[in-house]
Amino acid sequence: MKQIIFATGNKDKLREIREIMADVDVEVLSMKEAGIVVDVVEDGTTFEENSLIKAKAIAEHTDAIVLADDSGLEIDYLDKAPGVYSARFMGEDTSYDIKNQALIDKLEGVPKEKRTARFVCAIGAVLPNKETLVVRETMEGYIGYQAEGENGFGYDPIFFLDEFGCSSAALSREQKNEISHRGKALRAMKDILLERGAL
Fold it and tell me: More exposed terminus of the chain, fewer Cβ within 10 Å: N or C?
């Protein structure tokens, strides 16, 4: 069975990719499960650059397919901040309750039509022959006026979707996998890997 090493220690992301890859005969491993310990400095200026920096660093230690994602939140009113710094916004150890409230506070008095935002996910891949691939997908929405929902993580509770009338943290896992930036990017990458016969 072919293996994919997914460059994350995040259990939620790992579960998401396993669910999306469930119909392919492939084993998805975390870096830890693959026994790879690498400290990667993500110093790219775009999501695409960061995803490939991570994937290439791990690919030096394995001949398996390596996937890495870089994702974040872009808020148009804030010049697309926090963007590639989404995880590091206000410090990596700051809780998302505090980060989310800070973003809501920054948008105080801003009308809904100017609160447009998107989640962006770029997934970089390094194949066993060291060829690289990258895809980018988004999920469009707006920043709400208060946090809502228990199902999501990160910025999900303040990211609202008009078509569902709720935050992405209020969606079921199945709904979120269907429409999320990461779900779309993973499916796009899966299609490319299948087309190339890599899976």
Answer: N
